Amino acid sequence: MSQAQPNIASEAFDIAIVGGGLVGASLAYALASQDWRVAMLEAVAPRAASQPSYDDRTLALSDSSCRILAGLGVWPALADSATPICQVIVRELEGPARVVLDPAEHGLEQFGHVVEAREFGAAIMGLLPTLESLQMFQPASVTELEISDSGARLAFDHDGQARTLSARLVVGADGAASFVRKAVGIGAGHHDYDQTAVVCNITPEQAHNGRAFECFTPSGPMAVLPHRGSRCGLVWCLSNDEADDKLAMGDEEFLAAAQARFGNELGAFLKLGRRSSYPLREVRAVADTADRTVVLGNAAHTIHPIGAQGFNLGLRDVAVLAELLADAQRDGTDPGDESLLTAYHDWRAPDQAETMGWSDTLARLYANPGAGARLARSAGLVAHRLFPALRRHTAARAMGYRGRIPRLALGEPLT
């Protein structure tokens, strides 16, 4: 009979971040310049191949996201692995409409950059251990969360040992099935798109020249994004049955199928990397704050990958919360104070609602085979081709430059 592990004495922190994926790790680093004592609890062991955030997915970072990461000091660790997005081409494969988005229309050299999630993970996880104000617990699984007027108490299993800690603010960055969200009683709406995203790297015959392609097909959108050298990232959204078929294909058969769907704009598809997949569902929290608690990233809003808005939206959550916490520290405010949480919600709610609504509408519109939907899709693309003001509006929204913009996204320091 195994002997129970002792409960190690509780430690006190200002902020506890539950989840060390893309968004949680970014927030931990955002707080590095502040004097808060921060704990980050991540369920997956360091450098584990199973860390779901740091897989083969391609991150299309908007211009504002790149500015946020630059302001945090993360960008230098990413710059060598980032590929600029110099042009975006949007087309409907079974229709005549085609729109070319040029960053010069917005006074920019590029719309943003493409980075592999794996490269981002290597960069951010290499930086976090250098932070004196951060204590990382990996692997750590939270088992209890209790909130009181004065703070929060978290019980968790840390590498086989039962531990507890206290914090004045708890941040749930623990994904779509968030323990924190459920523990504090925040409900969430769910929608299953009955689609799967198949993700891989391909090498086309022709140079991508920094061009990103968003192709709308009857079975779902297909994105081809520029990577370093001649490689491209492929994100192919398919019905679940179709995705199973594509994943079961041999490499040559898969390349031929992807080629037939995408066309010859980049010439022949020559090489294929490892394929992975993930189901496409929307999760929308009914609130993003509760007593001494904030949920952000996928814990608050998991969205369809159409338009590549998921991580960009989460990174804007990070920038706003980090700014409010920087101001709170300067003013001597409790980081879990109700006024700070209200300010966060009021600031983030419009962007979250607009981005989620836009992504969901596009996903449903392009999954609808009806004649009316086809006409609406073609008309929308034609309108974007004809009217520069409409293109600028759409691009500004996609880049995160609408509404109230956080200081980091404007190139300004947090403090």
Task: Tell me about this structure.
The protein is α+β, with helices and mostly antiparallel strands and 415 residues long. The chain has one domain (11-190, 281-410): FAD/NAD(P)-binding domain (3-Layer(bba) Sandwich). It is built from eleven helices and 20 strands. The chain has helices spanning 22-30, 63-72, 75-78, 117-127, 179-183, 240-248, 251-262, 310-331, 338-365, 371-386, 388-398; strands at 11-18, 38-41, 58-62, 83-85, 87-92, 98-101, 112-116, 134-137, 140-147, 152-158, 161-172, 188-204, 211-217, 220-226, 232-239, 269-272, 276-285, 289-290, 293-295, 301-302. β10 and β11 form a beta hairpin.
Helix/strand layout:
Layout: E1 11-18, H1 22-30, E2 38-41, E3 58-62, H2 63-72, H3 75-78, E4 83-85, E5 87-92, E6 98-101, E7 112-116, H4 117-127, E8 134-137, E9 140-147, E10 152-158, E11 161-172, H5 179-183, E12 188-204, E13 211-217, E14 220-226, E15 232-239, H6 240-248, H7 251-262, E16 269-272, E17 276-285, E18 289-290, E19 293-295, E20 301-302, H8 310-331, H9 338-365, H10 371-386, H11 388-398
Parallel strand pairs: 1-2, 1-11, 2-8, 5-13, 11-19
Antiparallel strand pairs: 3-7, 4-7, 5-6, 9-10, 10-11, 12-15, 12-16, 12-17, 13-14, 14-15, 17-20, 18-19
Helix pairs in contact: 1-4, 1-8, 8-9, 10-11
